[in-house]
Amino acid sequence: MQAPIQAADAQLQAGPATAAEPLPVWRNGSFMRLLTGYTVSVFGDSFNGIAISLWVLQTTGSAQRMAAVQICYLSVGFLFGSFAGTIADRIDRRRLMLFSELSRSATAAILAVSLFVLHAPFPTLLVLASLSMFCSLLLSPAFHASTTAIVGPARVQQAASAIHIADNAARISGLAVAGIVVSAFGGLAAILTTAAAFLFSAVCTLLTRGIPRIERVAAERKPSFLEDWRGGLAYMRRDKLIRSIVLLSPLLSAFFLSAIMLVQVIAVGKWRANPIEFGLLEMCIPLGYLAGAGIILSLGRRLGRRGRLVFAGLLPLGPLYAAVSFISSPLLALPLILLGGLLFAFCSMMIQIILKTEVRGELQGRIYGTLGAITSVAPTLSLAAVSMLADRWGAEHVLVVLGSSLLALGIVATALLKPIRTYR
Predict the structure, then answer these.
(1) Nearest C-alpha neighbor of 413 from the set 311, 306, 304
(2) CB count, 10 Å around CB of 227?
């Protein structure tokens, strides 16, 4: 098993694959172990988020302190995301994932005892939450780069689809179960569940033996950390395709999440949706995303001209959300919300597949880390601006403007981002 995996990684770093096709991802034991651990980790992290939010609101009753927690997450992600990606490209990724998950597990256990047993002050929460966030930054680029190397170029689309399906399923089910656990057993049990989930993920990583080591071109001396970091940024500036993706992906996420937030406001304020109707609207977003991921997974290699599919999903999104603002009933909006999630899946997943296919293995950590840092900031700033405008002019009017702006973004991106449009 080790030799084929190393060969696949060598082909990935050299360029498009020409060798024999590797196993389907569901028959690739290394990939499935990593995916299982990652899925459980995402599931458990939902418990952490709900328990912390409730503790802050119930203990302090302060919206400002709740915002302070989010600002800590945002600041750590923005400041250290690209550096974490560089670390993932310099050291053994399996060991890095192990360190990350074990550190997050220990931090979650300490956080649970500190908040619910020792009744520690609020600054303790900020310190431990920031530490956990930093450790998660180390995990993400190492995980994505490792899965790409394990499955090989021919199975990147399949692997990306499986990861997105598992990620969304874990988040949906995690949030649902977390609410029940917090209500029935309290925040201490919820955060300890998070610690156990991270520990389980670490065990899955420990059992994964097929993660290839990073191979560097022979040189007189090993580049310094800062040289590697600057090299990743230079690569993104120099490569037209990667530069186009780094520009488009955060903007796409910012527009999509802002549109979803406005739909939620309209559902409550204009449509007077009851809890069941609101729950159906919330459910349609991830269901649409899962449907899109399932279509991409099932089509496999028959899905040609992947660059054009990015814009095929992007261009209808703006008019679709503008149309939602004119609807008078939440039930009539359900098909459009479902379709919006499906279209966004095509945009975002095609971008991920292109990244995994085109970026050399030894650079993927830096690309994912930097892109994650930018993407953590853009939607947050967009949500803040759009929420203020919605309070002033009304959510339905802002959604029309946002939909029109998203259509304009799609048209401009289609015209100017030729490296993505022409990608096969």
Answers:
(1) 311
(2) 12
Q: What is the DSSP string of 65-130?
A: HHHHHHHHHHHHHHHHHHHHHHHHHHS-HHHHHHHHHHHHHHHHHHHHHHHHTS---HHHHHHHHH
The pTM of the full predicted model, rounded to 2 decimals, is 0.79
Cβ-contact 48, 191 below 8 angstroms: yes
What confidence tens digit (pLDDT) does each residue in 340-393 have? 989 998 888 888 888 888 888 788 888 888 888 888 788 878 888 888 888 888
Lookup: tokens for 156: 């990147």
Q: Is 203 exposed, middle or buried (0-12, 13-18, 19+ CB in 10 A)?
A: middle
CA 150 from centroid of its chain's CA atoms: 20
Of 38, 292, 253, nearest to 166 (Cα)? 38
Structural tokens at position 47: 């418990």
Between CA 375 and CA 251 the distance in angstroms is 8
- In tens, the pLDDT along 122-143 reads 899 999 999 999 999 999 889 9
Reported confidence tier of residue 203, pLDDT bands at 50, 70, 90: very high
**By C-alpha distance, which of 239, 391, 259, 225 is closest to 333?**
259
C-alpha angle 305-309-314 in degrees, rounded to nearest 5: 155
